Amino acid sequence: MTPAVDVRNLRKTFVQGETSIEVLKGIDLQLMTGDTVAILGQSGSGKSTLLSLLAGLDQPSSGSIHMDGREIATLSEPELAVFRARTLGIVFQQFHLMSNLTALENVTLPLELAKDPAALDKGREALEKVGLSARSSHFPAQLSGGERQRVALARAFVVQPKLLLADEPSGNLDTRTGLQVVQLLFDLVGSRKTTLILVTHNDELARRCHRQLHLVDGTFS
Question: What is the pTM of this model?
Answer without folding.
Answer: 0.88
